[in-house]
Amino acid sequence: MGWAELFARVLGGESPVEIRAFDGSRTGPPGAEVCVEIRSPLALSHLAAAPGELGLARAYVTGAIEVHGDMYTALAAFPSIALEDVPPSLRRELLVKLAGYRLWWPVRPPAVEHRPRGLRRHSKRRDSEVISYHYDVSNRFYEWVLGPSMTYTCAVYPTATSTLEEAQFTKHDLVARKLGLREGMRLLDVGCGWGGMVMHAAEHYGVRALGVTLSRQQAQWAQKAIAERGLADLAEVRHLDYRDVTETGFDAISSIGLTEHVGLKQLPSYFSFLHDKLVPGGRLLNHCITRPDGSYGARPGKFIGRYVFPDGELEPVGTLVSAMNDNGFEVRHEENLREHYALTLAGWCANLEAHWDEAVAEAGLDRARVWRLYMAACRLGFERNVVQLHQVLGVRLDGTTAHYPLRPSW
């Protein structure tokens, strides 16, 4: 049996994808829209050394596997992959076939793989390290992927044909309206990224906005953009852990894409801290990725955990609502935007492909391949309800009064 047939059996099931291997073997429909090329025995060595998605990711990132055609289409064609479930007879066959190659093809993880060590999970120092790993890649690289909005969170599409930029503007404006922003108010944006929400609130609502981020490169980019847009009298972004914000008395807080980095054990202190930063009647909009339920663990798969978001944790939306409710907030509104995140990721994938050569030159081939794989897989995850995106709006009561309209005003 050739390598192509063996690889197809490992993946399981019939697939509309063509598979070709270095030994000349092939399987699947010739001339298919997508072709997976097994370039060396190292591909299956990675699978044997790290069963499941991590081994496949390592094989792709190192170039032992190449995908010709659209990555999203390729991933959608295969069933869920878990080498642990491969029948023992097939695993033995794989190991026997690899036996003649292992000495010549030592398996090493790619250099871009990251495993935090020696620090307490979600300590300030370790959070700073893992955020820097993901976000301090290159502002120029993120410009190629995210587009002019430089917004790395789920957009809100007013129509299915809206552009990514229109959808990101709509998202920021939806957050602003849910928070009831008005001229003269003070906004704190925790985990502010490149300052998109901060600048939107200042420019379109006359709000004095402070954003904080653990990424030094994000803060530098944001401060420059704020100055160039003439918003320095209203907007500011600091390189700072949100837990080190000393100011209080904010009228509103936006948390867009931070909670995924907080962790279950820290949720009570996180929401309590934000509650205490608000004036009575102030609102919090918490926007984050969630699990659809509690039937599987909070930590991501090994590929996402090693290559994309080390220490990331996803909770069911009910856990977040309960944590908000138990730490001072009256929850007023909640909605799931998972289809919007699938559309957002499709836009980012298209941007990466359109600027592939520039992205590779800026961040390196290994990291660009990580992003191609990660974003296509996440798009599929949102479409298939493996993950969701929820916005939850809470109010710090003024005694028993919420200062909230009888019906939502947005």
Could you write a compact summary of the structure shown?
The protein is α/β, with parallel strands linked by helices and 410 residues long. The protein contains 16 helices and eleven strands.
Structure description:
The mean pLDDT is 89. The chain has 2 domains: 3-99, Nonspecific Lipid-transfer Protein, Chain A, CATH 3.30.1050; 124-396, Vaccinia Virus protein VP39 (Rossmann fold), CATH 3.40.50.150. Helix 11 crosses helix 13, helix 14 runs antiparallel to helix 16 (365-383) and helix 15 packs across helix 16 (365-383). The protein is built from 16 helices and 11 strands. It is an alpha/beta fold and 410 residues long. It is elongated, with a radius of gyration of 23 Å. The strands form 2 sheets. Strands 7-6-5-8-9-11-10 form a 7-stranded mixed β-sheet, sandwiched between helices. A 4-stranded mixed β-sheet has the order 2-1-3-4.
Q: Architecture of the largest domain, according to CATH?
A: 3-Layer(aba) Sandwich
CATH topology of the largest domain: Rossmann fold
Largest sheet: 7 strands, mixed
- Order of strands across the main sheet: 7-6-5-8-9-11-10
Question: Unreliable segments (pLDDT under 50, ≥5 consecutive)?
Answer: none
Mean pLDDT: 89
The strand count comes to 11
Number of discrete helical segments:
16
How far from one another are the termini?
62 Å
Strand content: 15-25%
Identify the quaternary structure here.
single chain
Give the SSE order as H and E letters.
HEEEHHEHHHHHEHEHEEHEHHEHHHE
Keywords: Lipid metabolism, Methyltransferase, S-adenosyl-L-methionine, Transferase
Pfam families: CMAS (PF02353)
Protein name: Cyclopropane-fatty-acyl-phospholipid synthase
InterPro entries: CFA/CMAS, CMAS, SAM-dependent_MTases_sf
